[in-house]
């Protein structure tokens, strides 16, 4: 009843199996099927592959020439001010960079926001929209691996975007013979700040994008989530400041992603905040900022895991 | 350390590296035992017990019969409510990841991003299955060639025809050289020649590649042509599990339509009585699902052999009726369900249902509505 076992051809040479008469398949060249006997690297490797594919994709690598334009352009825009500052600092022999390492990303938040809005939907909405998700989940990786890879890739892409200008600043500062220890400390603080920023933005961007299979909606939603709270917070902070309520202005920063990072970096990482009059939250408030930042990151991760529990086959 | 495919293992000397695999599993690729899956409102699978041997097996059922749920459970992606299932000798609840490394899956729906080429996409999927980069590229080139994609494989998938897309979907399921592939409705959306090509490919997957196939469809006809074995499920229950030979050996049924005459105002009734008297099983169109306008005038006659055709002809002539048509029944899968449903209580498994339809060879495209 059950068909006889076929002996698979392991020979590399074209085999002479009689398939010429295969119904409907007669036009397919008859070059023998070769089995794969090599290593299968399993889950961890698949996770790494997904990470690197997503990270490369976030800069348009391995995609069409058209999709390289925006990420590369934004990358250049991100580094350009740093290069100019460095040039000016070297030329004028200034003893200090005009912008601190940890505050740099805050000044260029619009560029980071734009980058996130363009790449986060690309990373996750595509798989949802074209329903490729089942192809991933029918392979060794688990749902958690998918989320971890995508999250890590997006965060790494943002980290690259935000770190590159810091390195430009650092190199310039050393060229301008500024104090080595000072600059290295500044860079380290800056790196901590952009790590937090990358994780936070990646989380928010992915959660928002994963909610919709439509890329356009995703782009708009990410921009909205980043800018509307920021606009509202800035306006309220301005009002609070004018009314002399600086404490309130300090706390208000908790309610938008970029001001969260701003609060953390101005409290702990030696930066100056972009809040009105550069008020920095108190140390206690700073801890609240840090706590909120970390819980938003964790919350986004949890939300993503939940999202993909439902998006199975 | 890498196992070879199960069926190459001589049943005497098991040299497999798969822990817990015993020679018992060499003869079956899928075993389920009273497998049930209940959702709050529906029962998707109801105590399904089935053994599937290596080869091409068709899984037939109407939409919502539980085919997709079964595949999900077999891939280790959804827990069963009760019962157990083993794929390639591995327990689906414990070894899901290992099973998915050795099994391929081709979904029913579109799943291809339009903006990448088939090569890029399949290479990526090969790596997701654990193949190292070089091997992934080589296997992709091989597999795409085997499914019949040549120069076009470097173009973005967005410009492909449905048939080409189906080939890419098949290729991504085969690229890691699995021992078993699940093909969910692979002929969906294809024109008749596309269907034939896909069915031919599926046969090659087993015969030439040595990969066992579980293929689902709601078209029994096309599966009968492709499969060694057919499993029919409905409402999550097993209706039939038998080799295709058994399916086709079952007596065919004839649809007969006659005219009325003055002598016999109800020609259909008269013929029915006469045939019944001659000892032939006759039924009228069972209502409901028949959409033919003339269904009330159709008689279904069990054809035991060539002599039945003669008997019908002679009887009709004897009664002086006009024979409008006599044709081999185009069967619909719903009838298998209806018949088997009736028989299910008594005999759940193979014994052919009394009036099992005969395969039609005209493309097999008889959709269940």
Automatic annotation (TrEMBL), chain A:
Segments traversing the membrane: 69-92, 99-118, 151-175, 187-211, 217-236, 248-266, 286-305
Native organism: Streptomyces kronopolitis
Keyword Nucleus: no
Coiled-coil annotated residue ranges, if any: none
Protein name: Membrane protein
Pfam families reported in the protein's UniProt record: ABC2_membrane_2
Keywords: Membrane, Transmembrane, Transmembrane helix
TrEMBL record, chain B:
Region (Disordered): 348-369
Membrane spanning residue stretches: 12-31
Keyword terms: ATP-binding, Membrane, Nucleotide-binding, Transmembrane, Transmembrane helix, Transport
Superkingdom as given in the UniProt entry: Bacteria
An annotated Gene Ontology molecular function: ATP binding
A Pfam family that the UniProt record links to this protein: ABC_tran
Residue ranges constituting the ABC transporter domain according to the UniProt record: 30-260
PROSITE patterns from the UniProt entry: ABC_TRANSPORTER_2
InterPro entries per the UniProt record, alphabetical: AAA+_ATPase, ABC_transporter-like_ATP-bd, P-loop_NTPase
KW Nucleotide-binding (keyword) present: yes
Protein family: Belongs to the ABC transporter superfamily.
Protein name: ABC transporter ATP-binding protein
Organism: Streptomyces kronopolitis
Phylogenetic placement of the source organism: Bacteria, Bacillati, Actinomycetota, Actinomycetes, Kitasatosporales
């Amino acid at each position: 009843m059950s068909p006889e076992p076929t002996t698979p051809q392991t020979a590399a040479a074209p085999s002479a199996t009689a398939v010429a008469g295969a119904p409907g398949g007669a036009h397919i060249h008859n070059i023998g099927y070769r089995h794969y006997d090599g290593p299968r690297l399993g889950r961890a490797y698949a996770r790494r592959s997904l990470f690197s594919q997503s990270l490369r994709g976030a800069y348009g690598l391995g995609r069409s020439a058209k999709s390289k334009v925006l990420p590369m352009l934004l990358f250049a825009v991100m580094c350009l001010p740093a290069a100019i500052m460095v040039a000016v600092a070297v030329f004028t022999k200034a003893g200090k960079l005009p912008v601190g390492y940890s505050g740099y990303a805050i000044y260029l938040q619009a560029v980071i926001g734009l980058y996130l809005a363009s790449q986060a939907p690309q990373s996750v909405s595509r798989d949802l929209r074209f329903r490729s998700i089942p192809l991933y989940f029918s392979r060794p990786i688990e749902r958690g691996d998918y989320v971890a890879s995508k999250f890590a890739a997006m965060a790494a892409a943002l980290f690259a975007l935000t770190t590159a200008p810091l390195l430009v600043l650092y190199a310039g500062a050393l060229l301008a013979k500024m104090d080595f220890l000072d600059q290295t400390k500044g860079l380290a603080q800056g790196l901590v700040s952009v790590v937090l920023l990358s994780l936070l933005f990646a989380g928010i961007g992915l959660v928002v994008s994963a909610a919709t299979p439509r890329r356009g909606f995703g782009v708009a939603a990410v921009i909205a989530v980043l800018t509307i709270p920021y606009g509202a917070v800035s306006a309220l902070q301005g009002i609070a400041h004018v009314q002399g309520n600086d404490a309130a202005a300090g706390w208000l920063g908790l309610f938008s992603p970029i001001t969260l990072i701003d609060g953390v970096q101005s409290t702990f990482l030696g930066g100056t905040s972009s809040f009105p009059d550069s008020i920095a939250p108190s140390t206690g408030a700073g801890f609240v900022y840090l706590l909120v930042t970390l819980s938003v990151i964790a919350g986004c991760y949890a939300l993503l895991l939940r999202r993909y529990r439902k998006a199975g086959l | 350390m890498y196992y070879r495919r199960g069926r190459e293992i001589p049943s005497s000397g098991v040299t497999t590296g798969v822990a817990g695999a015993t020679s018992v599993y060499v003869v079956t690729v899928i075993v389920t035992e009273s497998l049930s899956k209940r959702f709050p409102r529906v029962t998707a699978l109801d105590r399904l017990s089935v053994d599937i041997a290596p080869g091409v097996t068709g899984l037939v059922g109407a939409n919502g019969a539980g085919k997709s749920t079964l595949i999900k459970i077999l891939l280790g992606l959804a827990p069963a409510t009760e019962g157990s299932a083993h794929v390639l000798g591995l327990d689906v609840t414990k070894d899901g990841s290992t099973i998915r490394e050795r099994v391929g899956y081709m979904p029913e729906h579109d799943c291809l991003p339009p903006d990448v080429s088939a090569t890029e996409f399949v290479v990526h999927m090969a790596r997701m299955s654990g193949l190292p980069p070089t091997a992934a590229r080589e296997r992709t080139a091989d597999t795409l060639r085997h499914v019949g994609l040549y120069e076009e494989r470097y173009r973005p998938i967005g410009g492909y025809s449905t048939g080409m897309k189906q080939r890419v979907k098949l290729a991504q399921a085969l690229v890691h050289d699995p021992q078993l592939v699940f093909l969910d409705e692979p002929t969906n959306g294809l024109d008749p020649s596309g269907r034939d090509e896909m069915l031919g490919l599926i046969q090659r997957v087993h015969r030439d590649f040595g990969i066992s196939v579980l293929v689902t469809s709601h078209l029994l006809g096309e599966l009968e042509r492709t499969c060694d074995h057919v499993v029919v499920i409905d409402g999550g229950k097993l209706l039939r599990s038998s080799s295709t030979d058994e399916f086709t050996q079952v007596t065919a049924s004839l649809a007969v339509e006659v005219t009325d005459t003055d002598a016999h105002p109800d020609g259909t009734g008269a013929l029915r009585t006469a045939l019944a008297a001659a000892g032939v099983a006759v039924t009228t169109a069972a209502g409901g699902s028949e959409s033919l306008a003339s269904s009330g005038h159709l008689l279904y006659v069990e054809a035991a052999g060539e002599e039945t055709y003669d008997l019908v002809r002679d009887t009709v002539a004897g009664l002086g009726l006009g024979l409008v048509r006599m044709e081999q029944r185009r069967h619909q899968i719903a009838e298998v369900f209806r018949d088997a449903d009736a028989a299910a209580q008594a005999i759940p498994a193979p014994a052919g249902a009394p009036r099992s339809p005969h395969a039609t060879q005209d493309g097999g495209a008889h959709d269940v509505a």
